Amino acid sequence: MTWGWWVTGFGVIFLFLGSLGIYRMPDVYNRLQAGTKCTTLGAFCAILGVGIIEPSWFWTTLIIAVFVLLTNPISSHAFGRASYMSSVSFCEKTKVNQSEDFCRDEDNDT
Amino acid sequence: MIGTIYLIIIGLGVVLCLLRMMKGPTAPDRAVALDTSVTVTTALLVLIGLILKRKIYLDVSLVYAVLTFIGSVAIARYLEGGIE
Amino acid sequence: MILEIILVFVMLIAAAAAGIFKDLLNAVIAVGFVSFIAAILFYFLQAPDVAMAEASIGAALTVAIFIIAIKKTKRFEEDEEGS
After folding, report:
1. Where are the domains of chain B?
2. What is the domain partition of chain A in residue ranges?
3. Among the four residues A21, A73, B12, B21, which has the most C-beta atoms within 10 Å?
4. How far is residue C5 from each of residues A15, B8, C2, C8, C37, measured CA to CA in Å?
5. Distance from the B59 Cα atom to the nearest Cα atom in chain A, whole angstroms
6. How far is C76 from chain B (nearest CA, A)?
7. CB-based contact B44 C40, cutoff 8 Å
């Protein structure tokens, strides 16, 4: 199963690019974007590639990969909402803020 | 051999997350760096288990993926209350 | 081998940062860094049970308990002159 190494390498490259995005992006929200999307795809491909290399491990790695796929966007959403609620400022290139009305309604309800 | 190269690339990713954790101006920056490096580490643990050839090592990765989610959500719920 | 050296230096820097930060929430995040890198190092030393305990207790429960404690008390560390 040599092509499992290619799938794992693809995932590893995306994991490194996600970490590079964490370091290079100018803003919390941009960092969250880079750090979530890249590392979700990268972790999914890297873990499933290990399952392809060793075929008897496939179901365990599938469980881990599906769990990463489920929990990573949830925690990312919680961080984005939390950093908006704690009024972290945007970077100066930001043009549109569509979630302004949403959070104002939320404040009125509570 | 190629597995070792993969491990070193992921280790450089962890170093970049550490630099952002040191530099980050606000607390959510540091929390996002922690969350990203946790996801990177889950893949790293599975790759180490592949190189050391033990199937029992995958269970550690599963427990790790389940339980660090609790810590991330705890930090996010605290930040959501606002900085007073 | 190279990865272990990298991770040990990352762990040392994060442990120093946990002492330096004045904001206690940032210090808790640095403690989380130290904890999960300790889990990887236990894993390299072929002790998966210790790594599992370290990952569950150190990375999740310690952070959650510290967050609850900060929420009950106060977040920012004051200067020594006040006390």
Report:
1. 2-80
2. 3-89+97-109
3. B21
4. 20, 11, 5, 5, 12
5. 8
6. 10
7. yes
* Beta-carbon separation of B22 and C63 below 8 A: no
Residue spans per domain, chain C: 2-74
Calculate what percentage of chain A has a pLDDT beyond 70.
88
Query: Model's pTM, two decimal places?
Result: 0.87
Residue pLDDT, tens place only, C43-75: 888 888 888 888 888 877 888 888 888 888 877
Residues of B in contact with C13 (CB under 8 A): 18, 22
Establish if B5 touches chain C: CB-CB under 8 angstroms.
no
Residues of B in contact with C24 (CB under 8 A): none
**pLDDT band at residue C4 under the 50/70/90 scheme:** confident
